[in-house]
């Protein structure tokens, strides 16, 4: 494919972005399908050693749901999950303009596949040699959740970050700008904290802890601990606009991100509804693949970034920060 | 609020920073109990030494405008914000009068400094 300006597609930033989207979409979907295939095929080799029917659902007093080895019953979870990972693959290809969106969606895809696969292997593996499935001991939910979290997190963290993609066009001339003298250095610093997400997070932590204690299922305590770490990282964010661009950083230090000034196409103000736009609170991927650090409903600082990406952070008086960011983005073009 | 420094201005950088906080408070952009940026963050963003920002904050504390609290950083003091509307009106009236008479800004500032001494 040649273009009038002679640029090869590999050197065209937009084409490069599209390609990395497709590569991640295809690779993560294939990986998830492979994991699902392993989760289905491995127990299939044990058919001669398994009771028929096998236990497929556990209550508090042991197995309470059974499925015949004949028919489609055993394949159903794999098929449902396969449909879901294909859907996630399509979402990555369509919405995965930002590396963060690709990492979250791909991690979710492979993590969910690993959850189903491990559940099948562990729950059926423990039934090998049993005459009656009612003697099955454990569904292996704990180990499966742990494997799923580890696999999902590893996939998300292993995927590459956004590569530098400086803008080639000037900043939107109609965007508001703070006045800056040529010798002046300027910075805008704000904090964003609180919001309903914290109360809901605290409730979830308390709830899972109570369930773990009541059921005396001690591995479940891992859940409130992980949720607690997550919540601590989402308590407060420092938002900074300076010569480098827009930085958002958890008060804990991680997670953090930088939108470089030379990648800013336009900064502005937007009304954010975390539930409607992002499906909840925290550091999220929302509608259209937009990445957001959203802790409450109200005004947010929106940055339109090269490569069709956009980023929003809920913060008070975002107009000042947006105006400074546009002015500094102008400066970064020179 | 936006913090600005001009290294070519001939005024010490910490004075420039302190002056902006004073203006921010008197304009009501900074309100009682509001936390100023962590000195480390602001120094990093403005590419100055952290002691420059700390010196500005100490200056403001000595003026009773902010309180420095361990773990909370610099917080705008309750005594710092008051009803400054009358002062603003007087300053505006001064500027209008100077403009009417064609007095240069330097002369007005000199007169003010004389008066405040």
Automatic annotation (TrEMBL), chain A:
The chain crosses the membrane at residues 23-42, 74-97, 104-127, 139-159, 195-215, 221-239. It comes from the Bacteria. Coiled coil: none annotated. Keywords: Membrane, Transmembrane, Transmembrane helix. This is DUF1648 domain-containing protein. It comes from Sediminihabitans luteus.
TrEMBL record, chain B:
Keywords: DNA-binding, Transcription, Transcription regulation. It comes from the Bacteria. This is GntR family transcriptional regulator. It comes from Sediminihabitans luteus. PANTHER family: GNTR-FAMILY TRANSCRIPTIONAL REGULATOR, HTH-TYPE TRANSCRIPTIONAL REPRESSOR YTRA. GO terms for molecular function: DNA binding; DNA-binding transcription factor activity. The keyword Ribosomal protein does not apply. Residues 11-79 form the HTH gntR-type domain. Transmembrane segments: none annotated.
């Amino acid at each position: 494919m040649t273009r009038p300006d002679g640029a090869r597609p590999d050197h065209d930033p937009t084409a490069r972005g599209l390609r990395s989207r497709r590569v991640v979409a295809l690779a993560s979907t294939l990986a998830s399908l492979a994991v699902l295939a392993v989760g289905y095929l491995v127990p299939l080799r044990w058919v001669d050693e398994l009771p028929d029917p096998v236990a497929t659902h556990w209550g508090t007093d042991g197995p309470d749901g059974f499925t015949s080895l004949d028919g489609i019953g055993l394949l159903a979870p794999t098929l449902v999950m396969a449909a879901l990972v294909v859907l996630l693959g399509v979402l990555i290809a369509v919405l995965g303009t930002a590396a963060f969106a690709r990492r979250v969606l791909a991690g979710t895809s492979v993590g969910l596949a690993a959850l189903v696969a491990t559940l099948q292997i562990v729950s059926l593996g423990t039934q090998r040699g049993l005459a009656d499935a009612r003697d099955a001991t454990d569904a292996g939910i704990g180990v499966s959740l742990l494997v799923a979290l580890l696999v999902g997190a590893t996939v998300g963290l292993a995927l590459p970050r956004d590569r530098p993609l400086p803008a080639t066009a000037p900043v939107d001339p109609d965007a508001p700008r703070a006045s800056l003298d040529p010798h002046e250095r300027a910075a805008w610093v704000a904090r964003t904290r609180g919001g309903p997400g914290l109360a809901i997070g605290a409730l979830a932590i308390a709830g899972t802890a109570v369930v773990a204690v009541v059921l005396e299922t001690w591995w479940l305590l891992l859940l409130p601990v992980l949720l607690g770490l997550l919540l601590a990282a989402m308590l407060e964010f420092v938002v900074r606009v300076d010569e480098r661009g827009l930085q958002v950083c958890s008060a804990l230090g991680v997670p953090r991100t930088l939108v470089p000034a030379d990648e800013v196409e336009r900064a502005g103000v937007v009304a954010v509804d975390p539930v409607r736009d992002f499906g909840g609170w925290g550091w999220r991927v929302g509608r259209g693949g937009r990445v957001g650090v959203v802790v409450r409903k109200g005004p947010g600082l929106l940055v339109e970034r090269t490569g069709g990406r956009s980023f929003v952070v809920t913060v008070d008086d975002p107009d000042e920060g947006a105006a400074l960011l546009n002015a500094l983005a102008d400066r970064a073009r020179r | 609020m936006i913090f600005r420094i001009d290294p070519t201005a001939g005024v010490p950088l910490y004075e420039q920073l302190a002056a902006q906080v004073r203006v921010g408070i008197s304009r009501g952009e900074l309100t009682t109990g509001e936390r100023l940026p962590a000195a480390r963050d602001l120094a990093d963003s403005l590419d100055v030494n952290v002691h420059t920002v700390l010196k500005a904050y100490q200056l403001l504390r000595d003026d009773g405008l902010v309180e420095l609290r361990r773990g909370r950083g610099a917080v705008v003091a309750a005594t710092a914000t008051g009803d400054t509307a009358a002062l603003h009106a007087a300053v505006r009236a001064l500027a209008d009068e100077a403009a009417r008479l064609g007095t240069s800004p330097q002369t007005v500032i000199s007169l003010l400094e004389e008066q405040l001494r």
